[in-house]
Amino acid sequence: MESTIFAGAVTVEEGGLFRRKPGQDSWESLQAGLPDRVKVYAIVEGQGDTLFVGAHQGVFRSDDGGESWADMQVPADGRPIYSLLVHPGAPDTIYAGSDPAAIFKSQDGGATWRRLATVQPEGAITGCFPVRVLKMAVDPSDTDHIYAALEVGGVIRSLDGGESWEDISGGLLELSHEPHLRNCILSDDLTEGMMDLHALTVSAEQPGTLWIANRMGLFVSEDRGDSWREFGIGRFSDLQYGRDLMVSPHDPKVFVAALSDSSRGVAGSVYRSDDTGANWQRIDHDISIDSTLMTVTISRRDPSRIFCGARAGQIFGTEDGGKNWVSLPLPDGVEDVRAVACL
Fold this sequence. Notes:
Elements: E1 5-11, E2 17-20, E3 28-29, E4 40-45, E5 51-55, E6 58-62, E7 70-71, E8 83-86, E9 94-97, E10 103-106, E11 114-115, E12 132-139, E13 142-151, E14 154-158, E15 166-167, H1 170-175, H2 192-195, E16 197-201, E17 210-214, E18 217-221, E19 229-230, E20 241-247, E21 255-260, E22 268-273, E23 281-282, E24 293-298, E25 306-310, E26 314-318, E27 326-327, E28 335-342
């Protein structure tokens, strides 16, 4: 392998952050400066060799490629950090997503933080677990426009860099009245499936267009979330449970998505669109993704490097755009993979 890969998990016997460098034939556990039994939900790159990790115990920063870590002291009152976003135009500006629907912002690389005045949508499903901010995205055409995907909570947006937020889940609730989109697992509310968001993304090729991945598939808004339509990923995939979704950092027409059979399923897949989401093709092959695919990422340094992580502790990757794939299982006892980064 030519890539350096990082993987984060939350079901662990020891630490939950791992690294595999080029030429290594096994994973190494990263622990210097991290809490014991750290549970990792997010890994993002900063500038140079800087990395940020969102964990059950807070946000941690490394400036040496993961050799050592420092606690960024986010004032989250002990709540986990489920997601991180580094602002594309201002790399010292970082957003950290927690619960219930809480977002923290730093403008000095993580040295200081403040909590933003977010909202929890009226249609959020409460009572099962706190509404978590699982993913955030910035519209490249207007970087003051920020969106957040909430697990069993819908979606919210800010049009002023995070200073104020509003609920834009109304169209999703309307769609939940469609018989095939009515679903509940954790509650008795049949809007639950549509409000169970896991990821979202915006492409520079489609200003103001927001794509989301939720329990019921992929959905699109062309008006910054004011209204929504079902994309219909079932036309291309038998697996429709959407867990992750991103636009390539190299080409705004290229999307990748992690699709599976269910939240704790036995089948996962990687799909790619080369035409801004109009058509999708499955690109994983000659490997067996036998649990829910939780995360997928395209390397910022090389567009041909795509890596993904499955709930059961599997990491899969390609370094030639999908022609060849490798399986890199994490150590025994490591499960519930939530984050992968590829350098």
